[in-house]
């Protein structure tokens, strides 16, 4: 029997705080932090020697990250974040005047802005498909398919949405695209879904600095073979004419490559935590935690057809319209007065706490939040 007890000792998180929002910025285990510190010491001992060693070490780490995703390393490039991944994908696709970029109302705000920027530049249009929170896969596929036509230049969909923590049926959507370029925003997918980049998207991007707990600034872009030549890093540097996609993205000018090199250490931490066995246990934990919180605030849990493995929404009675910064102000009060870190999301005029569970959490965290949060509502 594997020991799957909570392991806050592997992280350096403040024990006086309830850390219930891994989903936003992750949290890096001590072991990876220590490796990163050693790499930085090495850099500062001899920057010239360090930069000479970067290419080989980066290749080793990149191959390990590609293996973790179960993807072809020849189509896998490193980037600082999922925002950069979506932006690079949009830049590779021909988007003609009068064409449409289709996305959904679950899209991450910054990704929508990326689509809007390119649409403005190319005289194209952004079309937003509305998908109910409680939609099943058939409803999702039917609603998105109905918006695809000969004017569609690209479809962007979340694999796991941020605001609604919902898993989208990517394979079915790839089939529905029938040749229309599909960009999958898999920011939350690494470590929450097995082989997340294997569902037939033209472009897939995902963050290692969320659930795999890698240092911040580590993300990947998986590019289908036919798009590899056209896909370029956002920063033009010395690898501009390298025909190999991963190597082209490896070189971003003078940059702190230690982050990418140390990232693979977090994958080893996950392996040592028996992540495949632990993840379903975290699903149960976050579900139980969400039930406790919903009961405490007097709401019903939304019936999301495919919720993310380690995130759950709990609706709270909260009037977000009372001021433009009401949500931010509330999170700051929760942080200061309740010693808890949570995030709020809004969908369809409803406000939710989006709870997370990672290997450092235990049921006690949710019990304490449930006992404290009603005092601020
Ligand atoms: C669905 C989704 N897409 C994109 C992003 C952006 O990620 P990053 O800030 O790493 O670019 C996030 C971040 O939370 C997200 O949840």
TrEMBL record:
Keyword Isomerase included in the entry's annotation: yes
Gene3D superfamilies: Aspartate Aminotransferase, domain 1 (3.90.1150.10), Type I PLP-dependent aspartate aminotransferase-like (Major domain) (3.40.640.10)
Pfam families linked: Aminotran_5
Keyword annotations of the record: Isomerase, Pyridoxal phosphate
Top-rank taxon: Bacteria
EC number(s) given by UniProt: 5.1.1.17
Protein's name according to its UniProt entry: Isopenicillin-N epimerase
Taxonomic placement: Bacteria, Bacillati, Actinomycetota, Actinomycetes, Propionibacteriales
């Amino acid at each position: 029997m594997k020991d799957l007890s909570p392991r806050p000792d592997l992280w350096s998180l403040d024990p006086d705080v309830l850390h219930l929002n891994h989903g936003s910025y992750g949290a890096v285990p001590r072991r990876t932090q220590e490796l990163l510190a050693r790499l930085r010491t090495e850099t500062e001992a001899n920057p010239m020697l360090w930069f000479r060693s970067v290419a080989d070490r980066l290749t080793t780490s990149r191959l390990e990250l590609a293996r973790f995703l179960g993807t072809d390393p020849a189509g896998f490039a490193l980037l600082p974040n999922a925002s950069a991944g979506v932006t690079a994908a949009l830049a590779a696709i021909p988007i003609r005047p009068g064409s449409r970029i289709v996305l959904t109302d679950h899209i991450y705000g910054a990704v929508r802005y990326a689509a809007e920027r390119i649409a403005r530049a190319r005289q194209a249009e952004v079309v937003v498909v509305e998908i109910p929170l409680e939609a099943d896969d058939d409803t999702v596929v039917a609603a998105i398919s109905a918006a695809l036509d000969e004017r569609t230049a690209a479809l962007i969909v979340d694999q796991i949405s941020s605001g609604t923590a919902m898993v989208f049926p990517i394979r079915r959507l790839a089939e529905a695209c029938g040749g229309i370029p599909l960009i999958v925003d898999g920011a939350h997918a690494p470590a929450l879904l097995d082989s997340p980049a294997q569902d037939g998207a033209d472009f897939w991007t995902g963050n290692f600095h969320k659930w795999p707990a890698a240092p911040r600034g580590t993300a990947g872009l998986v590019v289908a073979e036919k798009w590899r030549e056209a896909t370029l890093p956002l920063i033009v540097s010395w690898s501009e004419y390298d025909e190999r996609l991963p190597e082209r993205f490896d070189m971003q000018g003078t940059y702190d490559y230690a982050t990418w090199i140390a990232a693979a250490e977090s994958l080893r931490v996950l392996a040592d935590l028996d992540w495949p066995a632990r993840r379903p246990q975290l699903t149960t934990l976050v579900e139980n935690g969400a039930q406790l919180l919903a009961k405490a605030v007097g709401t019903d849990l939304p019936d999301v057809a495919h919720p993310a493995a380690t995130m759950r929404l709990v609706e709270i009675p909260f009037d977000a319209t009372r001021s433009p910064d009401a949500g931010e102000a509330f999170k700051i009060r929760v942080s200061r007065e309740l010693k808890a870190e949570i995030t709020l999301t809004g969908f369809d005029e409803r406000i939710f706490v989006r709870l997370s569970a990672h290997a450092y959490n235990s049921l006690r965290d949710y019990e304490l939040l449930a006992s404290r949060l009603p005092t601020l509502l």
